[in-house]
Amino acid sequence: MKMPIFAYEPNDLSVFSTEEAAEAYIEAIDVLNGEYDYFFDADGYLLDAIVDADSYTPDAIIVEYRPVKLQPVEPPKQDTQALFGILHRHVSHDLAVKGQPTEWLEEATLADLVAWVSENALTY
Q1: Nearest-angstrom CA–CA distance, 109 and 123
Q2: DSSP annotation string for 41-108
Q3: Which pLDDT value is given to residue 56?
Q4: Strand bridging mode 68-72 / 47-51
Q5: How far apart are CA 58 and CA 55, in angstroms?
């Protein structure tokens, strides 16, 4: 699994510098409710968010464990087009809001977008 990890829910992208940060942030109830569309690593490999049903208590106020575990989907599946599209829309929007040039996006690769998001987005 190549960092960063991206968690995408409609109109929201979360970026995590480590697997541990992602698992600590992602809430089991959100996974169970299907609120995330995709989890990717930096190379576009799809990840599954697995909730440990034995340790998950929906009404717990304080949780001392990480009930969500990320792992590559089996068999491994890479969807670079989906990740590229998500990151392209995210970067394009951020640049437009900041009044920064977007011309470089016309030639951007997935690696360019991953690098920009890693350096400029709020990363957990």
Answers
A1: 20
A2: -TT-BBEEEEE-TTT--TT-SS--S--EEEEE-SS--B-HHHHHHHHHHHHHHHHHHHT---GGGGG-
A3: 57
A4: antiparallel
A5: 10
For the residues 1-21, what does the mean pLDDT come to? Answer: 95
Task: Quote the tokens at residue 57.
Answer: 């208590």
Angle between helix 110-120 and helix 80-98 axes, rounded to 10 deg: 50
Q: What does DSSP assign to residue 34?
A: T
**Percent of the chain scoring above 90 in pLDDT:** 76
| Residues 30-63: tens digit of each pLDDT | 998 899 999 999 999 999 999 976 665 666 555 4
For the chain, how many residues are written? 124
Amino acid at 20: E
